[in-house]
Write a structure and sequence with these properties.
Distance between the termini: 71 Å
Shape: globular
Bound molecules: pantoate
Order of helices and strands: HEHEHEHHEEHEHEHEHHEHH
CATH class: Alpha Beta
Oligomer: single chain
Number of helices: 12
Number of domains: 1
Largest sheet: 9 strands, mixed
């Protein structure tokens, strides 16, 4: 009897300590030094601290676990715990999210952050929750700009025939088609090699990503088109979160909020310092761009991808946010 009790106590202690050491994997597409890496580390540090070490964490950076679309699927089947991703591929899972990917919709960072931190952002996080995912917090990628290896882009005519990698996002593809480029959707982990080998001439991403990925090694020109705001979101697996207590879910929520805040602070820093870094590394940075003709063509070709299905209400609500 004595032996049995001792064995049971040891087994219970082992079970508790196994629970106490749950290690969370946070996947993202960029390096640990990037704005996503900073956000992933803030998530891990906050979760570890709040849980008193019951949860620890590690990053799976640089697309180690696949492109953003693969990682989102990983959350749905429970092979991955937490992902920081742009909304690029998310519309394939939660079509209402395409509203956020419309070009020239957000005026500036303040407009985007106020929108996402308010009712609209919460409604869209709730929509994510209806699609076998948990949307914890709105993080950030940044305003996207066009880079390419061929020539300076100042007007839509300069995009003519340019083979441009876009995200796997039908709103973005329609926008670039309208602006005159030849959009080629591709997962991010394939992009650097595709640029290097001339499979595509260019791509579009925020300064944060262009610097983190050292695209100056394969791209000469960057045009500050700011054609679309690229939100990011901290997502979790429902398979993981459904098994947690309210207190534990609270730790995950706080970790996601800390992650989003840290990423946005890093975006702010790189928006200040990043353009100089691009120049230092030999890129020609084109700043004298009249955005109006880009905006007109992009809106004409892409807004209907969203509004044909969902109407114009969400677009008007976002435009009205002060
Ligand atoms: O271009 C993309 O696919 C995204 O902007 C990236 C770089 C994966 C960050 O979310």
């Amino acid at each position: 009897m004595k032996h049995f009790l001792t064995g049971a106590i040891v087994a219970a202690a082992l079970a508790t300590s196994a629970q106490a050491q749950q290690n969370i994997v946070v996947g993202h597409a960029l390096s640990t030094a990037s704005h996503y890496g900073v956000g992933a580390q803030a998530f891990i540090d906050t979760l570890t601290e709040l849980s008193g070490g019951a949860f620890t964490g590690e990053q799976a950076p640089a697309g180690q676990l696949g492109g953003e679309r693969d990682m989102i699927e990983g959350l749905q089947i429970g092979s991955l715990d937490v992902v920081i991703t742009s909304t690029g591929p998310l519309g394939n899972f939660v079509p209402e999210i395409y509203a956020l990917d419309l070009p020239f919709l957000f005026r500036d960072y303040a407009h985007a952050r106020t929108t996402l931190d308010g009712d609209i952002g919460q409604e869209l996080l709730d929509k994510i929750g209806e699609n076998n995912l948990v949307g914890l917090a709105w993080s950030e990628n940044g305003f996207r700009h066009v880079t390419n290896s061929q020539h300076a882009v100042r007007t839509p005519a300069d995009l003519d025939g340019l083979k441009l990698r876009t995200m796997e996002n039908k709103v973005h593809m329609a926008a670039f088609q309208g602006m005159g480029a030849s959009p080629t959707p591709m997962a991010f982990p394939e992009l650097f090699t595709a640029l290097q080998q001339g499979v595509v001439d260019g791509q579009e991403n925020p300064v944060t990503v262009i610097t983190a990925s050292k695209f100056w090694e394969v791209q000469k020109y960057v045009s500050l088109t700011g054609h679309v705001y690229s939100p990011a979101v901290v997502l979790a697996s429902p398979i993981l979160l459904d098994g947690l207590s309210d207190e534990q879910r609270g730790w995950f929520q706080a970790a996601a909020d800390a992650s989003a805040a840290a990423t946005r602070a890093e975006v702010n820093r790189l928006e200040e310092a990043g353009v100089a870094l691009l120049r230092e590394n030999g890129m020609e940075v084109i700043t004298d761009i009249d955005k109006a003709p880009f905006a007109e063509l992009a809106a004409a070709s892409s807004y209907s991808v969203y509004t044909d299905q969902y109407g114009t209400e969400m677009v008007e609500r976002i435009q009205a946010v002060k």
